[in-house]
Amino acid sequence: AMQCFPSLVLALSSLLGALALLQLSLYLRVPSRYGKHEERLCRPRGRLPARCAWFLQELPSFLVPALLLALRSPPRLEPLGCRLLCCLFCWHYFYRTFIYPFFTRGRPFPLQLLFFGTLFCIYNGFLQGYYLIYCAEYPNDWCTDIRFTSGLLLFLLGMGINIHSDLLLRQLRKPGEITYKIPQGGMFTYVSGANYFGEIVEWFGFAIATWSLPAFAFAFFTLCCIGPRAYHHHRYYLKTFTDYPKSRKALIPFVF
């Protein structure tokens, strides 16, 4: 039977933090090569339709924790707080795997980025699932702890912003259209990367609710990975649209 090895959790979390800094160094000046930014860079050869690519990439983040739970003997999570935390992680990736891809209208996705994205989802799905299912120890009243309740509220707020922003982005483009338009409404009133802002808030909420090194490492990775992309989106909009609202920030309302 699988056991908890704290040294493995520490090593994997530290590596995730290092990967976050690597992401930041790679993409702070030059955007990753897909979506609206690929036109200015060399186009990758191999691609998959966006719906298929997002489904394949996000699937391991849902399946790996489910597999780890199935392998656990007895197959249960205790206490209730731990069970809820694992459900939050799987809930997000259920949406990202089985709902979001079938509504997206994005451009075909580069196979190279799909490969690395899938590897990351396997890695992070294992780290978060392994910690929560085999290592995490919470008091029975963790559900009433201020860290859990405040983190849960942040998670739900962030997920709501993320889903609502994705909806607004989809409504900008009719089926078959590939042109980009200025997003309006919701958090887009304040920031160019409203969908990214929501996801960052979501995972920092999860980290606070979980109060664990793996979750904080993942939240930091999310910030370093999609934070620069929000910044490049902001610059793209400012350069492309002369009427783009100058009051909007890139990622954090009223700050950045």
From TrEMBL:
<dbReference type="GO" id="GO:0005789">
    <property type="term" value="C:endoplasmic reticulum membrane"/>
</dbReference>
<dbReference type="GO" id="GO:0030154">
    <property type="term" value="P:cell differentiation"/>
</dbReference>
<dbReference type="Pfam" id="PF02544">
    <property type="entry name" value="Steroid_dh"/>
</dbReference>
<keyword id="KW-0812">Transmembrane</keyword>
<keyword id="KW-0221">Differentiation</keyword>
<keyword id="KW-0492">Microsome</keyword>
<dbReference type="GO" id="GO:0047751">
    <property type="term" value="F:3-oxo-5-alpha-steroid 4-dehydrogenase (NADP+) activity"/>
</dbReference>
<feature type="domain" description="3-oxo-5-alpha-steroid 4-dehydrogenase C-terminal">
    <location>
        <begin position="108"/>
        <end position="256"/>
    </location>
</feature>
<dbReference type="InterPro" id="IPR001104">
    <property type="entry name" value="3-oxo-5_a-steroid_4-DH_C"/>
</dbReference>
<keyword id="KW-0521">NADP</keyword>
<comment type="function">
    <text>Converts testosterone (T) into 5-alpha-dihydrotestosterone (DHT) and progesterone or corticosterone into their corresponding 5-alpha-3-oxosteroids. It plays a central role in sexual differentiation and androgen physiology.</text>
</comment>
<dbReference type="InterPro" id="IPR039357">
    <property type="entry name" value="SRD5A/TECR"/>
</dbReference>
<dbReference type="GO" id="GO:0007548">
    <property type="term" value="P:sex differentiation"/>
</dbReference>
<feature type="transmembrane region" description="Helical">
    <location>
        <begin position="146"/>
        <end position="165"/>
    </location>
</feature>
<keyword id="KW-0472">Membrane</keyword>
<feature type="transmembrane region" description="Helical">
    <location>
        <begin position="203"/>
        <end position="226"/>
    </location>
</feature>
<keyword id="KW-0726">Sexual differentiation</keyword>
<keyword id="KW-1133">Transmembrane helix</keyword>
<keyword id="KW-0560">Oxidoreductase</keyword>
<protein>
    <recommendedName>
        <fullName>3-oxo-5-alpha-steroid 4-dehydrogenase 2</fullName>
        <ecNumber>1.3.1.22</ecNumber>
    </recommendedName>
</protein>
<keyword id="KW-0443">Lipid metabolism</keyword>
<feature type="transmembrane region" description="Helical">
    <location>
        <begin position="109"/>
        <end position="134"/>
    </location>
</feature>
<dbReference type="GO" id="GO:0006702">
    <property type="term" value="P:androgen biosynthetic process"/>
</dbReference>
<keyword id="KW-0256">Endoplasmic reticulum</keyword>
<dbReference type="InterPro" id="IPR016636">
    <property type="entry name" value="3-oxo-5-alpha-steroid_4-DH"/>
</dbReference>
<comment type="similarity">
    <text>Belongs to the steroid 5-alpha reductase family.</text>
</comment>
